[in-house]
Write a structure and sequence with these properties.
single chain; Ribosomal Protein S4 Delta 41, Chain A, domain 1; 2 domains; about 40% helix; globular
Length: about 200
């Protein structure tokens, strides 16, 4: 399974946002990376702005180019507004839902938990981070993995009512995917229309 394993703080500084989670480097150096990053005043082209938005979405959700392109093509052929459908598809990925439920502190950590068979979907172990979760399905921690330190630390103090489309059961250490979130409910700072325009060129 391909994934981005390069420097994360550099990417966060490039976009000026902590897209991989809390970042100490970004908070200290909130300017672009590179020796001229602090002095750069170059204006981006229209294409550059659209490309940057696509890259930001890819890095935020941990999806590589070919997979992202396939998701866009499916969203483009589905009913509804293409950009919104694309974001809803990304939000419905198993690794993203594990992250949203607070089982893992970051999407990368959520992906690892799924890949290492610590997560169950409707009671069955699933090790596919990109699996599309349907409304009504229950995502939980595998019985023998409930005592894992990373899971315990991540769940401590999490506000489980933060996302209206997820319902958390504390005793079962599991959450239900109630419905696909509306665009207004998705907190990510992504201008999806720019991505649609980029792929439409």
């Amino acid at each position: 399974m391909a994934r981005y394993i390069g420097p994360k703080s550099k990417i966060a500084r490039k976009f000026g946002e902590p897209i991989f989670g809390p970042d100490k480097v970004l908070s200290k150096k909130n300017y672009a990376p590179g020796m001229h990053g602090n002095n750069r005043r170059r204006k981006s082209s229209e294409y550059g702005i659209m490309l940057a938005e696509k890259q930001k979405a890819k890095y935020t959700y941990g999806v590589l180019e070919r997979q992202f392109r396939n998701m866009f093509e499916k969203a483009d052929s589905a009913p509804g507004i293409t950009g919104e459908v694309l974001l809803q598809s990304l939000e419905s990925r198993l690794d993203n839902i594990v992250y949203r439920l607070g089982i893992a502190p970051t999407r990368a950590a959520a992906r690892q938990l799924v890949s290492h068979c610590h997560i169950v979907v409707d009671g069955k172990v699933c090790n596919v981070p990109s699996r599309n979760i349907k409304p009504g399905q229950v995502i939980g921690v595998r019985e023998r993995s409930k005592s894992l330190e990373v899971v315990q630390n991540s769940l401590a103090g999490v506000n489980h009512s933060k996302y209206s489309w997820l319902e958390w059961d504390e005793s079962a250490m599991a959450g239900k995917f109630m419905n696909v979130p509306e665009r207004a409910e998705i907190p990510e700072n992504i201008k999806e229309q720019l991505i649609v325009e980029l792929y439409s060129k």
